[in-house]
Amino acid sequence: MAISNETGPAPGRTSGDTTGRVLVVDDDPTVSEVVAGYLERAGFTVHRAADGPAALESAARHRPDLVVLDLMLPGMDGLEVCRRLRANGNGRPTVPVVMLTARGDEDDRILGLEVGADDYVTKPFSPRELVLRVRSVLRRSSSTAPVDEPLLAVAGLTVDPAARRATRNGSELALTLREFDLLVYFLRHPGQVCDRERLMREVWGWEYGDLSTVTVHVRRLRSKIEHDPADPQLIRTVWGAGYRFEAGARLPGSGQGTVRGEDGHA
Q1: Which segments within 77-168 are labelled E, that is strand?
Q2: What integer best gives the mean pLDDT of the chain?
Q3: Higher pLDDT pick, 107 / 197
Q4: d(C-alpha 51, C-alpha 153), whole Å
């Protein structure tokens, strides 16, 4: 069993909480039952699956708002399930995923982030912490920018924060929840050097955590917005300091590289 010993009830609902449908995928029935129980007491509707095929079938049938996904599953592992959930998005951002990984398996955690997991919790874990992580991801996924916030445009990228939609040279980008938020943050702070601690605090809402999470997401975002991810021109690394978004960068076929509002003014 990979749940830490703890006492006390699941975190209760408070004003402003975001609830919804959660799919819990774990082949350990005890873990699945405990996690589902905590989520249900916190106000979520929970469906459960014990393996990859059942998870994909349930996701298609129930359209969950979030998936809690164990990495180690029989037959089809959690990485493949996450890949298929992402592939089923038809080019659009798809359901957020919180992945469960074994403590110390940093390579597995990084792989989970690489295939599109939005967050992870290491085993053994506290069910109360998991509920809080689920709430945090759902709050961010359901948050909207003011409807009158202007579009952000730079180097062929156009981002609509209110609609949570991003395109590159007219083609819609399939960004995960965190990738989209990271891109918007960079666009709102052009020319500033942002260290990983700042990005984790401002984009993830965490005061502390594994900074490799930020590194992996920057790499994934580069692979989707840069003309040559191996030689990034938009998200530049400032060695020993962090990252800087170059609003004036010009990429092939992108035109003017200045961040502009929807009225066309810089």
Answers
A1: 97-102, 119-123, 152-154, 157-160, 165-168
A2: 81
A3: 197
A4: 42
Q: Phi and psi for 119 in degrees, rounded to 5?
A: -160, 170
Q: What pLDDT does 15 receive?
A: 40
- Going by their DSSP bridges, the two strands 66-70 and 97-102 should be labelled as parallel
Least Cα distance to 93 among 38, 51, 142 occurs for 142
Name the residue with tokens 């798809």.
94
Report d(CA 100, CA 23) in Å as an integer: 13
Q: Give the pLDDT of residue 213.
A: 85
Instruction: Write out the two tokens for 27.
Output: 């082949």
Q: What is the mean pLDDT of residues 25-51?
A: 95
Q: Are 105 and 113 in contact (CB under 8 A)?
A: no
3-state DSSP assignment of residue 102: strand
Q: Can you give the pLDDT at residue 69?
A: 95
Task: Indicate whether 163 pLDDT > 90.
Answer: no
Report DSSP state, residue 26: -
DSSP 35-81: HHHHHHHTT-EEEEESSHHHHHHHHHHH--SEEEEES--SSS-HHHH
Running DSSP on this structure, what letter comes out for residue 208?
Answer: S
CB atoms near residue 217 (< 10 Å): 23
Of the pLDDT bands very low, low, confident and very high (cuts 50, 70, 90), residue 92 is very low
Q: Considering all CA atoms of the chain, what is the largest pairwise distance in Å, rounded to the nearest integer?
A: 58
Residue position matching structure tokens 């509920």: 131
